[in-house]
Automatic annotation (TrEMBL):
It comes from the Bacteria. This is ABC transporter ATP-binding protein. SUPFAM superfamilies: P-loop containing nucleoside triphosphate hydrolases. GO terms for cellular component: membrane protein complex; plasma membrane. It comes from Cellulomonas aerilata.
């Protein structure tokens, strides 16, 4: 559950959000299959994600949330429309440039953690930088590890860590390269409420204290309440948005969309 009192305290010290969107989509469509079997997963989405903000994407099951996130994160190719991430028009990029964009400017957190089982927590955290041939900024590495309380676990492999600890490692890995944007797909879907609060609290703090931009798909109103803004999907379109959400208001809005 969101701790609104501590959040209000940190918001005061937050980085000013930059007016230029960190990622945007225009007239975005995604059709799976064809003919009678065609599914219009995205039916024309226009959206801007503000730099330095935490945005949650909510909506009923099948409304297009994951498809939207995957198209925005260059993990999937739209049928039509444009996606711009950190000033780069993703549709113009060939495979190698797309790989670089994902590696250098985007951080990912997935529901299933997606850690490399043979690597230690420390090695998992720095993996994106190691692949890119970059060195971790030692001060930043220490800060992230410290905030996430991972110090005593750095030598452990994923199967020696709890789900919450694994997701904290995944969150550290997403942020270690200071990406322009972090996309999180149901990051608390496999976590208990305490571990969820730790991961969401870290994401919130990274926005407030370090100006990180985050977009998160979630089913949970209590998770969406950590965001600055919630956008609501239904039938492949964005149908509404809410600023300064609370779990109660998000839940009420979701009921009118036919979910929960
Ligand atoms: N690879 C695919 N092939 C065919 N249809 C797909 C594919 N991926 C998604 N869809 C369909 O596209 C629509 C949107 O799916 P999407 O996963 O984006 O929704 P979602 O809002 O993320 O759902 P959930 O909350 O259940 O994860 C659904 O009707 C889904 O069945």
């Amino acid at each position: 559950m969101s701790d609104t009192s501590s959040r209000t305290a940190t918001v005061t010290g937050r980085h000013a959000a930059d007016a230029t969107p960190v990622a945007s989509a225009r007239a975005l469509t995604k059709v799976y299959g064809s003919g009678d079997a065609a599914v219009h997963a995205l039916a024309g989405v226009d959206v801007d994600f503000t730099r330095g903000e935490f945005t949650a994407i909510m909506g009923p099951s099948g409304s297009g949330k994951s498809t939207l996130m995957h198209c925005m994160a260059a993990l999937d190719t739209p049928t039509s429309g444009t996606v711009v991430v950190d000033g780069v028009d993703v549709s113009t990029l060939k495979d190698a440039a797309l790989t670089r964009l994902r590696r250098d400017r985007i951080g990912f957190v997935f529901q299933s953690f997606n850690l490399v089982p043979t690597l230690s927590a420390a090695e998992n955290i720095t993996l994106p930088l190691d692949i890119a041939g970059r060195k971790a900024d030692v001060g930043w590495y220490d800060t992230v590890v410290d905030i996430l309380g991972l110090g005593p676990r750095l030598g452990h492999r994923p199967n020696q860590l709890s789900g919450g600890q694994q997701q904290r490692v995944a969150a550290a890995r997403a942020l270690i390269g200071r990406p322009a944007i972090v996309f999180a797909d149901e990051p608390t879907g496999n976590l208990d409420s305490r571990s969820s609060a730790e991961v969401l609290g870290f994401l919130r703090r990274s926005v407030d204290e370090f100006g990180q931009s985050i977009v998160m798909v979630t089913h949970e109103p209590s998770a969406a309440a950590y965001a600055d803004r919630v956008v609501f999907c239904a039938d492949g379109r964005l149908v509404d948005e809410m600023r300064r959400p609370t779990a109660e208001r998000v839940l009420d809005r979701m009921k009118t969309l036919g979910d929960l």
